[in-house]
Design brief:
About 60% of the residues lie in helices and about 5% in strands. With about 400 residues, the protein is mostly helical.
Length: about 400
Amino acid sequence: MLATLFDWVALVIRWTHVIAGIAWIGSSFYFIALDAGLKANPRLDPRVKGEAWQVHGGGFYQIQKFSVAPEFMPEHLTWFKWEAYSTWIFGFALLVLTYYLHPSVYLIDPQVMKIDVADAVPGAAASLLGGWFIYDLLCRSWIGQETKRLAIAGFILLMAATFAYTHIFSGRGAFIQVGALVGTIMVGNVLVIIIPNQRKTVAALLAGQAPDPIWGEQAKQRSVHNNYLTLPVVFTMLSNHYAFTFSNPKTSWLVLGCIFIASFLVRHWFNTLHTGAKPDWRLWPAAAVPVVGAIVLSLLGQASFTIADNAAPVQFAEVQQIVDQRCHVCHATKPQFPGFAEAPKGIMFDTPTEIQKLAPQIMAQAVKTHTMPLGNVTQITDTERAALGAWIVAGAKLN
């Protein structure tokens, strides 16, 4: 009963995290598009940078943006912050419940690095905060004074973190850590720069003073960063369902790097489109190149499997013994592994027929990518993986 309640807690937190994330990403995409589509109008107040006319839901909207701020404080002002805060809060809670409370299953892989739980979890959590401070210092330095220079430096920083994570933690844990790091940077932008700078502007208005334009410029810079980082974060969150993306630490960091580049190009195409400029369709094939590169890298990273000519046929009795010892502890009607109230993804190896039916998944997850068992908690050997593969290649027969 307690395990089921725990799963419900995790489900509600995940659901809330996704809902908040949709709201945050939606507002980010909307306001960047709105800002890009503003048109100057000499008939308006000189303090107005531009306006946009939009139609939605049968109604027309006229939106104006001030270069710095209006001369008075509006009676009602909508703040956009809790979408970001709640996304991170529930995301971090989910990270703790899934990865930090079960590090030996999801976060640590002895085949990547033998690291103690007492070091892995604090190190993983501290790296999120450390990554934010390094990024923030980068933006505040002379590097942050020029967009292209900052973009290159930021990408190098991101790739360095990705390389480190994939060579310390399990593939699945590493990709989630990258997503958590980027998400922390994004919410840090909102918490430390965007909202405080907006509060300074409001305080200046209430005091009858002219707000400093630099506050808005800094907030806009960080807002644009968040906009470009959204697609990579979404990919890292989805990647845990596709082991071929993260299974090999030698290539997985490059796979993620390719996805970063493709995501930035796609996002840039949309952001440019919103300005009213002629769409640069070359960005789509340009984005396809790194995606193809990621696919190639994932294929190259898969372990090859061959059967020796003089190898003896593997009987199902041997296969069933391996599955019972290494897989059935989790993938059963009533899992014996702590923390699982039911079989992960509904996959069960209770009967010979189920084992035979799921042979393709066994080949993909246990033989080729070595992503199962998670963290190799049941200590399956390479010899046993080879036996499973030989049985499957020979036709996965039960007799």
